[in-house]
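WARN  no MSA supplied for this record, continuing single-sequence
INFO  ligand: zinc ion
INFO  echoing inputs
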Amino acid sequence: MKKNLHFILYVLLGMGISVAIYYVALMIEFNLLATAMIFVVPVGGLLFGGMIGFFAKEGMFKDNTPFNAGRAVFLSVAMIVLFIFLTYLDYLTCYVTDTGDISRLFKGEHVSKVLNGFGFKEYFHLEYFESEVSISTRGNRSHPIEIEGSQGWNFVVYLLQYIGAIVSVILGAKAVNGLPVCDKCGKYLREKEIERYFSATDAVTTLNEFDSTLVGVNKYVPERIKATNYRYTLKAHYCSECQKGHLQMYEHAFDGKNHHFSPVAYKSLTPDTMMKLGLIKNYGMQGYSTMMKI
Ligand SMILES: [Zn+2]
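INFO  complex generated
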């Protein structure tokens, strides 16, 4: 459990935010799970799956655990549970006012009282299998065009939501496996941005401030470093426990439309530099390699 603490907490957080978004959308009469853009793109599925996948990735990063089959199953089950709960929330908050409108703010009577014996099971069946797909107001607002969905169409939309959610949650979470790891202990490297968007003329000076050995950066990018239309960002990727890491310089250019980022220089960090950058507090006091020195 402790090993997966952040993973589970972050996934629950993502699920909580999904519930909030779904409810707010319901209030403006927009059911994110019953909506498929151009009939095939499952809006809610991709939105919630992508977001929870991102949260799961952050959790695994904090836990130093990889994405694997077990976590894929966990996430898939979590999405199914979430989606059934969302329809349950839909049911719980379905109140009918005196004028016959649906209120999501608990005005009027609950649908189960208005339609006697209309429980969650019936509601679920209605939502998934019987609801009509209505395409309203093309032109004349007072006479909305309603296209009646064939029986089963809604089921297809819901099925797409589940598939979309499971695929996107897995793709989002899987990204953690592409992150750089410490070659000594195998944990994910932490990242710290040292300097952002500094100009080309300052590049070498800036790098030298952090690590004199980085003068060599000039060898990697002889022309570009002098070009004025490029900007540079310097990041440290490091493992504080092993006191290992590297500085990575990124170049970005703006062509008037898009920003382009590319890594241009890479240099190992010395414990000295790591201290200077505040990545470790003290060295010579921890770790096996230090013991050996003493
Ligand atoms: Zn390490």
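The longest helix spans residues 69-92.
INFO  checksum written, moving to next record
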